[in-house]
Amino acid sequence: MVITEDSLSKRKRCGMKLILVGEGYRNKNDFEGEEIIGEMNLDDEEGGWVEAKESDFVVICSGNADIIKKNMMLRGITASKLMDYSEWSIYRRRIVLLSHELTNTGAPAVLFYFAKILKENGFSPTVVSLVEGKLRKNFEELGIPVIIEGNINNTNERFWNWLKGFHTIVLNTLIFSEQIDQLRGCHNNVVWWLHEGEDIYTDLSTVRTFRKVDENFRVVSAGDVATRSFKKFYHSNHISPLYYGIPDIEHGDKKLVFALIGAIQPRKAQDLFINAIKCIPQPIIDDTEFWIVGRDLNEKFAQELRNQSRHIKQIVFKGEIPLKDMQYIYSMPFQNRYNASCCYGSI
């Protein structure tokens, strides 16, 4: 058994802890991001078995994988830890993405494009959401499985064991702070993608305590606001950026369109958007269109916005629009876009 240099001192690194057995063909990309804590030769009969038991997986790079598996099981290595090279290559591409909902709003929509990129690059993503939503159809059209499960925690033993069968777990948004605590010690490849500002932390702090996040979890943020909020409430600098983008869409004409996309509620500041529009000279407003896109999450606030904008016909409330329909509307000529808004409950 050959223990890699200072591997024992890096046990808090992200990624799976692996023992590699044999000198068969290996693609180094298949082990990128993992922690190789040791390598075992086929004729190693004495050493290394303690380390093998402590690893997450033993990957057998040999044509005699079945025989080696049997021998290792006789020496006390759990069968579920043993994989041949081809099994590992498939497993490492299994990724589960957890979403709090499937609406056409910010974080779920960003997760959709993330899943799309994973799929296009040969990974096998599966989406799990707490609740059903219109975005489900978008995932399924790409061949990405979607599961609705309202009980995503370790009290749901059957689901929890299934969840640990993925190489990577991605938790999307602060909503899953409890799951981060529950995953301590039972999964070594967790990515927590944060999008929230301080207001969401403040709301959640009435029912949750923000514990220190283990360093073997990757914490990433969608932007500077999310980074600052995490550092303030978790008192940790263990966070790095994972920015996102959406596909460029060409407009059907030269008219300038400003769109504020997000559920209608005070923290999205649609009222500031409308107030800014009122400061624009009328000739510019006449040649421009302003969209407010999103479901009414706060009905009283939404009605106030409609009252504030009732004299500006260029302000169009479009309601919640599926991603693919949004892209279709973007490509329309201006007059058709304006008429089509009626189909989405705008005023």
Layout: helices, strands, pairs:
Elements: E1 17-21, E2 35-40, H1 49-54, E3 57-60, H2 65-74, E4 82-84, H3 85-91, E5 94-99, H4 106-120, E6 124-129, H5 136-141, E7 146-148, H6 157-163, E8 168-172, H7 177-182, E9 190-194, H8 198-204, E10 217-221, H9 224-234, E11 240-241, E12 256-261, H10 270-278, H11 282-286, E13 288-293, H12 299-308, E14 315-319, H13 323-331, H14 334-340
Parallel strand pairs: 1-2, 1-3, 3-4, 5-6, 5-8, 6-7, 8-9, 9-10, 10-11, 12-13, 13-14
Could you provide a short overview of the structure?
This protein is an alpha/beta fold. It has helices at residues 49-54, 65-74, 85-91, 106-120, 136-141, 157-163, 177-182, 198-204, 224-234, 270-278, 282-286, 299-308, 323-331, 334-340, and strands spanning 17-21, 35-40, 57-60, 82-84, 94-99, 124-129, 146-148, 168-172, 190-194, 217-221, 240-241, 256-261, 288-293, 315-319. Strand 9, helix 8 and strand 10 form a beta-alpha-beta unit.
Helix content: 25-40%
- Give helix and strand order, one letter per element, not per position: EEHEHEHEHEHEHEHEHEHEEHHEHEHH
Distance between the termini: 71 Å
Main beta-sheet annotation: 7 strands, parallel
Radius of gyration: 25 Å
Number of helices: 14
Please give the order of strands in the largest beta sheet: 7-6-5-8-9-10-11
Q: Strand portion, in percent?
A: 15-25%
| Overall average residue pLDDT | 83
Approximate shape: elongated
Describe the structure in your own words.
- The protein has 347 residues and is α/β, with parallel strands linked by helices.
- The strands form three sheets. The chain has a seven-stranded parallel beta sheet, sandwiched between helices. A four-stranded parallel beta sheet has the order 2-1-3-4. The chain has a three-stranded parallel beta sheet with strand order 12-13-14.
- Strand 6, helix 5 and strand 7 form a beta-alpha-beta unit.
- The chain is elongated.
- The termini are far apart.
- 29% of the residues are buried.
- The N terminus and C terminus are likely disordered.
